[in-house]
Specification:
This protein is an alpha/beta fold. The protein has helices at about 5-25, 30-35, 40-45, 55-65, 70-85, 100-105, 125-135, 140-155, 155-160, 175, 185-195, 250-265, 270-285; strands at about 110-115, 165-170, 200-205, 220-225, 235, 245. Helices cover about 50% and strands about 10% of the residues. Helix 2 packs across helix 3, helix 4 (about 55-65) runs antiparallel to helix 5 and helix 11 packs antiparallel against helix 13 (about 270-285). It holds the Pfam family DUF5753. This is Helix-turn-helix transcriptional regulator.
């Protein structure tokens, strides 16, 4: 469940405010970096919320931007303090996609296109274990167990009694046919998808093979949206060694339009359910 202070979101909001102050001052990130004798990449990471920010960083930046209102400085300092608190996921140690977890924890809605596997928020434990082990064959059993537990913990966002995450998933039909774990694991997994898809805030559509080339042909991505107008939408693209976060309005709009095409090309909700039900019966044989 989301905590009262989400460090990832605090960093994003603080970074947006610092960028606003820099732009009001008419300075480039390079000019600020030169004034503070730091790298330009540090200023960029502070502004995009990908790096924790200290109260000293805030104080120095406010000095460069000549912020005279002490109330603004104090507010930004408090945000910096809050941003260094730990979210629930930090208890599991170093999680490569911890930034994404922080965003997902605070998101109001999430749209996912998944071409290869059942998306993480809909996975059963057995399916998740098989996916994690198959995807990370060189990791230790302890590391893989941690990843599974984090994945299952994330699912509390879609099962919460109050303000659950609104989830829309487009699954490529390939994800339903790929046997992960065993046929029994697949049967239980697809039954789980059917059960969750009955919840009013969860929608699942299947993109059938017969569509051919489609708007999601380049691969998996997610679009996160937030209740607070101050938090811009984010497109998340998962990578092997690093992840990509797109927040520019043009980029988000492009992926949003792509997602609408995917939804239109997919089977409708009832047709998708019938396909999944048929595959459940096949896996039971």
């Amino acid at each position: 469940m989301a905590s009262n202070v989400n460090p990832t979101v605090r960093r994003r909001r603080l970074g947006q405010e610092l960028r606003r102050l820099r732009e009001l001052k008419g300075m480039t990130a390079e000019e600020v970096a030169e004034r503070l004798l730091v790298s330009q990449s540090k200023i960029s990471r502070l502004e995009n919320g990908r790096r924790s920010i200290s109260q000293r960083d805030v104080r120095d930046l406010c000095g460069v931007y000549e912020v005279e209102d002490q109330r603004i400085v104090d507010s930004l300092m408090q945000m910096a303090k809050d941003s260094r608190q730990q979210g629930w996921w930090h208890a599991f140690g170093d999680i490569p996609y911890s930034v994404y977890i922080g965003l997902e924890t605070d998101a109001e809605s999430l749209r996912v296109y998944e071409p290869q596997i059942i998306t993480g928020l809909l996975q059963t434990r057995a399916y998740a274990e098989a996916i994690v082990q198959g995807g990370s064959p060189e990791s230790s059993e302890q590391e893989n167990d941690k990843r599974v537990e984090v994945r299952l913990r994330r699912q509390s966002r879609i099962t919460a009694d109050q303000d659950p995450l609104r989830l829309w998933v487009v699954l490529d039909e390939a994800a339903l046919h790929r046997v992960v774990g065993s046929r029994q694991v697949m049967r239980e997994q697809l039954e789980h998808v059917l059960e969750l898809s009955q919840l009013p805030h969860i929608t699942v559509q299947v993109l059938p093979f017969e569509v051919g080339a489609h708007a999601g042909i380049n691969g998996q991505y997610s679009i996160l949206e937030f209740a607070d107008a101050a938090d811009s939408s984010v497109v998340y693209i998962e990578g092997v060694t690093s992840d990509l976060y797109l927040e520019k309005p043009h980029d988000v709009q492009k992926y949003t339009v792509m997602y609408e095409h995917l939804r239109a090309q997919s089977l409708n909700v009832e047709q998708s359910r019938r396909l999944v039900e048929r595959l459940v019966k096949e896996y039971a044989r």
